[in-house]
Amino acid sequence: MTVTAEIPTRAKISEGSRQERRLGWLLCAPAVLVMTAVTAYPIGYAVYLSLQRYDLRFPQRARFVWFDNYAAVLSSSYWWQALWVTVLITAVSVTIELVLGLALALVMHRTILWRGAVRTSVLVPYGIVTVVAAYSWQYAWTPGTGYLAGLLPPGSAPLTDHWQAIGLIILAEVWKTTPFMALLLLAGLALVPEETVRAAQVDGAGFWQRLRLVVLPLMKPAILVALLFRTLDAFRVFDDIYVLTGGSNNTGSVSILGYDNLFTALNLGIGSAISVLIFLCVAAIALVFVKVFGAAAPGGEGDRR
Amino acid sequence: MPKRRSPRARPAALVLTLALALTACGSGGSGAGPTTLDWYNFPDDSGALQQAADTCGQASGGRYAIRYNKLPRTADGQRQQLVRRLAAHDAGVDIMGLDVTWAPEFAEAGWIREWTGAQKEQVTADTLPAALRTATWKDRLYAAPYNSNTQLLWYRDDLTPSPPRTWAELLAQADALAKDGKPHDIEVQGAQYEGLTVWFNTLVGSAGGAVLTTDATAPALGAPAVTAAGIIRELARSAAADPSLANQMEDQNRLALESGTAAFEVNYPFVYPAMKADRPDLFAHFRWAPYPAVTPDRPAAVTIGGIDLAVGAYSRHPDLAREATLCLRNRDNQLVNALRGGLPPSLRSLYTAPELTADYPFAAEVLAALESASLRPQTPAYQNVSIAIAHALSPPSAVDPEHTVAALHGQIGDALGSKGLIP
């Protein structure tokens, strides 16, 4: 119905709406220009750099090499190791955050007493600067200075072991961003009509049935948005790893790998190729969420699916 | 009309005034008054560097003043900040404090100026040869050694009356202490960073080898490197290994000894004034000895450290900057830096000066170590080489000498050509 209605208006556009459209473009223009300058230009420049052999220390050796840098990155075990660590941290932390976040959202939604205090206390970790929180975790897990390391058997230094360090990085991520997940899911819970839930209750549905068959399906748009945001965020994990382990013992993510190759090795070609690959991964994640799962901003297209 | 124009004209005039004021600041005093030279160096809490900058400014007779800018605390952070400025051709970088490994890299990239003629002779006179070699690239001098540094073995004589001379003796003594239930940890830089590279480099040199060939174009390694990797593995798997060995850096080593849980540390002389200030009770038993050797017949070739002062390629005042550099590293300022900052001088004659030896009781041992010092691999790709080494040897307990050194051979080859990725 909407399709047939749209075609004639597009064909015969009135003078008034044409002017409106022109005004719209004029109003958008400054934003478009700014976005081009601050987003499109750096991305384009990174792509350009990624096609060159360009090491800051050997400026005279710089030359155009097409896709050699991509071949070097994709054939390197360091890249695949970092990608595996990144995917692992992303998958595990986002899954835990979804479950915990939903639980917290339900608590916040239902709390009658001290509602403000409960919500504030849940949000505290999200308010702390990540690097500050990461340093407190680092000290906590270091034998001698740490209260948490003291709880472990003597002689254990968890941040020096690959699996334990990965676990602690995930813990730090979960601790930091579960409140954000809970906040997004709380907004989603508000979408669920109270009478629908009550009707299910009258029909004899228990708590789990109501959650699984009524609440979660109605919250789907909000859950997908929350998952999309957190997955993109988690995939770019950098600060927690940088502070906790510095990427040692094979705990580095792709962002750490890109940082090291750009800023320590000063290899602009390889570093830019890694950055472009991260960009493509992030774009692919976003595409999968939007096209396959149909995620959209609440109130957007996704709501109608 | 004039009434209408004034509200617009006023901000414009203000912007113009501000812009003029800013250019005046940035030009480093092209008008009257001394030229301000910007000196970027490691953050010094002792006040020695600020004092040197002030006294040199005063001694210049009003020709220049030195502004001491503090770089980040870690060597990597310092290098990144300098590289960012230099890559952007920042004309405000007049004098830089370079870590001993950066001169080849910065020289190759064209970021620092060569020293020639009479000024070069002034730099080389009385300066320790090993320190000079750190500032040299392709037979040209690119920096003036400001301070030197080296590691010694520090121990507690209440636990160990006679210090060990080799790594084997060190491990045996630690083992005996462990059996007696006494503090026995050996503190060493085992984290995956440059300190681990330095440990390995020292061990390889002490075993009679080198990481790179003499022309620095290929890995050397070989049997000495396998011996070195074997010592690292043996320590990491012994009772003397700190539980946090794989995360330990110089400062954690110092703290472990100050807290009383460790018996030995290989570390730089800054631990001495720190122990004196922090633990006077333990300080009474705090002693030093030469760095442990690999074999009893050959003294250890400890890796030299320190800071070299270089003049920026884009500096607007290179001649004044060189003059100021010579002042900053003169005898008086190096003495202050040694006594207040705890950093060993780069001038050989200072090591026998009574002003120094009175407060620097280990001066003779430091000088001996510097005379037989080994250099870190001298190549513009040092960072890549260092990362490859630190990555291959981490965690130290997982080192498999033959296999690790073989893998390292290929990785160092790639690193030298700045080929491929760094981990």
Automatic annotation (TrEMBL), chain A:
<feature type="transmembrane region" description="Helical">
    <location>
        <begin position="213"/>
        <end position="232"/>
    </location>
</feature>
<dbReference type="InterPro" id="IPR000515">
    <property type="entry name" value="MetI-like"/>
</dbReference>
<keyword id="KW-0813">Transport</keyword>
<feature type="transmembrane region" description="Helical">
    <location>
        <begin position="23"/>
        <end position="48"/>
    </location>
</feature>
<keyword id="KW-0472">Membrane</keyword>
<feature type="transmembrane region" description="Helical">
    <location>
        <begin position="120"/>
        <end position="142"/>
    </location>
</feature>
<dbReference type="Pfam" id="PF00528">
    <property type="entry name" value="BPD_transp_1"/>
</dbReference>
<keyword id="KW-0812">Transmembrane</keyword>
<protein>
    <submittedName>
        <fullName>Sugar ABC transporter permease</fullName>
    </submittedName>
</protein>
<feature type="domain" description="ABC transmembrane type-1">
    <location>
        <begin position="83"/>
        <end position="289"/>
    </location>
</feature>
<dbReference type="InterPro" id="IPR052730">
    <property type="entry name" value="Sugar_ABC_transporter"/>
</dbReference>
<feature type="transmembrane region" description="Helical">
    <location>
        <begin position="162"/>
        <end position="192"/>
    </location>
</feature>
<feature type="transmembrane region" description="Helical">
    <location>
        <begin position="82"/>
        <end position="108"/>
    </location>
</feature>
<dbReference type="GO" id="GO:0055085">
    <property type="term" value="P:transmembrane transport"/>
</dbReference>
<feature type="transmembrane region" description="Helical">
    <location>
        <begin position="268"/>
        <end position="290"/>
    </location>
</feature>
<dbReference type="GO" id="GO:0005886">
    <property type="term" value="C:plasma membrane"/>
</dbReference>
<comment type="similarity">
    <text>Belongs to the binding-protein-dependent transport system permease family.</text>
</comment>
<keyword id="KW-1133">Transmembrane helix</keyword>
<dbReference type="InterPro" id="IPR035906">
    <property type="entry name" value="MetI-like_sf"/>
</dbReference>
TrEMBL record, chain B:
<dbReference type="GO" id="GO:0015768">
    <property type="term" value="P:maltose transport"/>
</dbReference>
<dbReference type="InterPro" id="IPR006059">
    <property type="entry name" value="SBP"/>
</dbReference>
<dbReference type="Pfam" id="PF01547">
    <property type="entry name" value="SBP_bac_1"/>
</dbReference>
<dbReference type="GO" id="GO:0055052">
    <property type="term" value="C:ATP-binding cassette (ABC) transporter complex, substrate-binding subunit-containing"/>
</dbReference>
<keyword id="KW-0813">Transport</keyword>
<keyword id="KW-0732">Signal</keyword>
<dbReference type="GO" id="GO:0042956">
    <property type="term" value="P:maltodextrin transmembrane transport"/>
</dbReference>
<feature type="signal peptide">
    <location>
        <begin position="1"/>
        <end position="32"/>
    </location>
</feature>
<comment type="similarity">
    <text>Belongs to the bacterial solute-binding protein 1 family.</text>
</comment>
<dbReference type="GO" id="GO:1901982">
    <property type="term" value="F:maltose binding"/>
</dbReference>
<protein>
    <submittedName>
        <fullName>ABC transporter substrate-binding protein</fullName>
    </submittedName>
</protein>
